[in-house]
Amino acid sequence: MTYSYFPGCTLKTKGRDLDIWGRAAMEALGVELRELPQWQCCGAVYPQAKDEIAVRLSAVRALASAGELGTDLVTLCSACHHVIKRVNRDMRTDETIRSRANTYLQLETPYAGETKVLHYLEVLRDQVGFDQLQKRVVKPLTGRKIGAYYGCLLLRPSGEMEFDDPENPSILEDFLRAIGAEPVVYAMRNECCGGYTTLENKPYAVKQAGRVLENAASCGAEELITACPLCLYNLQVNGGGKLPVRYFTELLAEALGVKEGAV
Amino acid sequence: MNHMTEIVTRISGVNPRKCMKCGKCTAACPAYDEMDYHPHQFVDMVETGRLEELMNSRGIYMCLSCFACLERCPRSVEPAKLIEAVRLAVVRQQGRNHLKPEQIPALLDPDLPQQAITSAFRKYRK
Amino acid sequence: MQVNETFKPTVVAFCCNWCSYAGADLAGTNRLQYPADVKIIRIPCSCRLNPLFILRAFQRGADGVILCGCHPGDCHYTTGNYYARRRMTLLFSMLDYLGIERERTRVEWVSAAEGAKFAETMNDFVETVTRLGENRRLEDLRCKSE
Amino acid sequence: MQKIGVFVCWCGSNIAATVDVQAVSDALAREPGVVFSTNYQYMCSQAGQDMIQEKIRELGLTGVVVCSCSPRMHEATFRKACEKAGLNPYMVEIANIREQCSWIHKDKLSGTEKAVLLGKAAVAKVHLNTPLTAGESPVTKRALVIGGGIAGIQTALDIAEAGFPVDIVEKKPTIGGKMTQIDKTFPTLDCAACILTPKMVDAAQNENINILSYSEVEAVKGFVGNFTVTIRRKARFVDETKCTGCGLCTEKCPQKKVPNEFNLGLDTRRAIYIPFAQAVPKAAAIDPNYCTMLKTGKCGVCSKVCTVGAIDYQQKDELLEREYGAIVAATGFEPISMDKFDEFAYSQSPDVVTSLEFERLMNAAGPTGGTLLRPSDGTHPHTLVFVQCVGSRCDGGEKGKPYCSKICCMYTAKHAMLTREKYPDTEVYVFYIDVRTPGKNFDEFYRRAVEEYGVHYVKGMVGKVVPENGKLKVQASDLLGGQQLHIDADMVVLAAAVEPDKSARPLATMLTASMDTNDFFTEAHPKLRPVESPTAGVFLSGACQGPKDIPETVAQAGAAAAKVIGLLSKDRLTCNPCVARSDELMCNGCSACEKVCPYGAITYIDKEFRGPNRTTLLRRVAQVNPAVCQGCGACTVACPSGAMDLQGFSNAQIMAEVDAICK
Known about the structure:
The structure holds four protein chains of four kinds. Chain A is an alpha/beta fold. Chain A has helices at residues 16-28, 57-69, 78-93, 95-105, 120-136, 158-161, 171-178, 202-218, 229-238, 248-256, 259-262; strands spanning 2-6, 32-35, 73-75, 117-119, 145-148, 182-184, 223-226, 245-247. Chain A has two domains: 2-119, Glutathione S-transferase Yfyf (Class Pi), Chain A, domain 2; 128-262, Rossmann fold. In chain A, strands 2-1-3-4 form a four-stranded parallel beta sheet. In chain A, strands 6-5-7-8 form a four-stranded parallel beta sheet, with helices on both faces. In chain A, helix 1 packs parallel to helix 10. In chain A, 56% of the residues are buried. Chain C contains four helices and four strands; from the N terminus they run E-H-E-H-E-H-E-H. A four-stranded parallel beta sheet of chain C has the order 2-1-3-4, with helices on both faces. At the C-D interface, helix 1, strand 2, helix 2 and helix 3 of C face helix 4, helix 5, helix 17 and helix 18 of D.
């Protein structure tokens, strides 16, 4: 199995761990992630305005370049996934955006949303299979009570992300079960952590992160996992260390026994 | 239709008339306490053309873009898109950037992912 | 493309009695406008539409013909619209071969509850046919007087 | 040559405002064969009908064209009027110049032009009309009611009362339906079981009613007055005629872990069970998904304890075929699944329940014996939050329903009131978008909940429920108070939208009855024929036609019964004469028509024809049974030789219309 891979800028710097462990784990599972030859920051937020073209272009470039290579495009960071998946949908369904973007980019073959965008977790679930993953685990995380923190970007808007049930998601819980841990379901797992406002309104980010952690802890979670560097930062820094928060790829690498060698 | 209402509905692609005023957006909003106007009011104010007040409100910058309102709206009104459109209608005006580059250094923290800065720039300035 | 502003196409709409004719009535009840160029002929079911009727319409100078029936699965006579769909597919490819533009014929499923869809469909169809301009008349060479 | 009269209706200003009716009648007067043409304010009025009849008699008209509203509205009226004046009713044609002309065109010039053309097409058609005589078919004097809830029971009782035999087919092991699960009924608060169970007994004891419980309709053939229905009697593994309903088996069965559907899974039952104490028929049934004997062949406890030998592990599904004259659909409703609404944490906390589950929790025969206890820990709840419109009034998408479920405002008021009445120490909040209480004594009831019982009605919605430390943290909006509320609740009750029962869609297909996009059965006319399906002989009772409360359901059930009685009291029915007819001389016996006929109305006979030189030869030709043919016309197009034609919509008639329109 070979995929094009879009790491995104944060995964090259502050969120390096998410990327390193993610690649190591996929390698161990026999899945090849080929980083796109040239990629730019996806823009970090999806431009909701219908008349914003320029800010969609870097996502379109990544999509078109994966399309030329004839592979599906895998993303890992929640924000990148959100942006790229939705821009891809725009290219497929919105004629105005499609024609304007193609006019700007002057690609050899015009791009119309043909590339399939997958999140890393979807590759694990649908291509590798959680049952197969379970068989490859060498160090199961037995007895660890872990809460999955989804945040907002992976799930919503569900009609466009088509990732999981937006109000009762299960992909991360199934993942946790596969690596031998005990998933803890708590209601705040799909509520926003407030990370976006950390620049603008830090006290609020602190308060909201606290709510998430409080709810997770009260339901018995002893640690949290996430797929988003901003959520991780916010829950760790603004959450005041109530619970340890890790990238899900770290636990995956740990369970597959490739964590040490990766760093 | 009020000129600004027209601009905002065009940018957002949202039809505020679909709103049935149930208030689920406001019920779902995690940033309620931070806002002066609230999601259901955003929709109403766009529909009734009270754009001036909305464009001068602090609330539009407090929206987390977490899409809880959009996801849970029973009428597919999508308040989050309206709020973004109002914000854009402000920052697209000359000199109305909400975030200025010179503010950034003071806000930095060594662990802050650059995603936070990029997104803030994308959202709050032109 | 140049569009002749004064050109008024002749459009024949065959509507099944149970769904589409009722849908057209509903469009009327709701005062949904569509061009007067559309003339409706009531047939009991879309499967009553003999392809000859369409050929006759094109012979006599129709610019567009549309068949409206119940949605697949909702036919009052259970299966009539499936027959209609198959027959029309064949007829349309033949018309295409004869040089009648594909856009001049159409099959749409309009239920009795879809007054708005009926009006939209008719607006769209008349616009398409108007854009195509006047149709060439199908002629039966055997009947030609000279 | 026909002598045709043309009558143009103004319909007040409905037509006359955008169509120049004088110009229309003048133009049509010049059409060939038209001997009289006029216009009048209301053709459908008595005066208008008199005018048509007078002209038929005076001028000896052989055909009539009425330019008026849709034939779906008044074709029957005008046909009847002409028939009275001695003209064959099928010599009348309607040109629809209201719904399909005056109402949709604002420009008077083009409207008039179109009206003239439509009139010309109708005149051209009438020229080719032939007098048709309707045939007759017999009526089987027995009715089938599908669904044994309050709607089906009431319909069956009313039909039986009039002296006609009725079968009730119910898919569950007992009749009674949703009403058996309801605790009290609004706005009088009388107990549902107390008013329903006597009716169930009446149905069981009525000699005209035959209850086929645990049965489903498998196939429907035929037409009004002459339906043949195949019914599957599912194996209940208990001989219904022998079982006395003593219940011993249900006490001794070792398989105790079966979710009890009657209490919506809030407690358990045995693998052999009687759904509830007042079940009708009161006979046990074995659940084959859980019975150890049926699954492994080892157990047999129920058979050993049964004193009358009613247990029969070998029982098989049985197929019955029966004849009916009329069929009533009474398939009812279900609350929608809460799977897609987990912002209310329904799947995360047992203390978040639906309103129907709440009925069971309040009911003396329910899992808690009528004491309201939290399902999670069995404690008494102090703060309850009711959420209305969960899944109702949603726009499109698969998540909810676009309609108002109609009954939720009232039952929520009932729940809130009963809770406050029984447990004055509780705080009860109701979140509403609108409170809709149109009904006799309904608004008074709701006001009483607020004013006398102190229920907190809050205009707003709940946006998120977070189970935390044994509480349900409810985040909601209070739109009138301008605040976001955070309530620590003990229970949350969701007023789930209702939807038609899942069995309705396949049933509609079998009945060829139409449904709307929400899978509710469509009525023949939304105002004037609300209990009939557009398919003749099929009637609608209860919530399968749209959300309804109990009084409305019972009223509609009675109305449906009246329509059925009207049909069954006829000995013969007049058939639609617009049916297919085969020209034996042209028929080549190819069978193409037979293959496309959905009704099996076409058969072949070998008929003697005169051959050359005084010989006779046998030829295979098609014959249409006019009582079975429904007049769709599929055969007419399939016929390669042009022998098959449809009366009333003949090839020549439609061609004439085409010619009149295109020229």
